[in-house]
Design goal:
138 residues; 0% strand
Length: 138
Amino acid sequence: MVFIDNDIKIKTVIVLKNVLLPWAKYRFRFRPFVFQQDSAPAHRARLSGFINAQECSSNSLDLNPMNYSVWSLLESKACSKQHHSIDSLKRNLLRVWEEIPLKYLRAKVDAFPVRLRAVPEHVEGVSRFTLSMCNGSI
């Protein structure tokens, strides 16, 4: 876990090219995939703007393992007591992050494709196009 100060500018293209793309090529192994960022201002790269934010419902399915599993675990453990400073919160988040077994994180990431494939079977009105455009690739 890394904390980044508000005034730091991250070179999105460098991160996408040197980190995300190699990971995605390894993970999807020549299968097509769609990269979509959420609508948080800090997460919007200019180069992924080919998908209009209105095309994906604000209450679309959230299948990201960080959102449905890891963040909630961090929050429940690190925020079980009130913090009186940002530094206290950061220290506690780091402590809890270090306690999460790597096996747990790998299992959540490995389950992601299975979760994606299961959506059309369980959610009425979800098309393959909508799923791939709004949540990633199948």
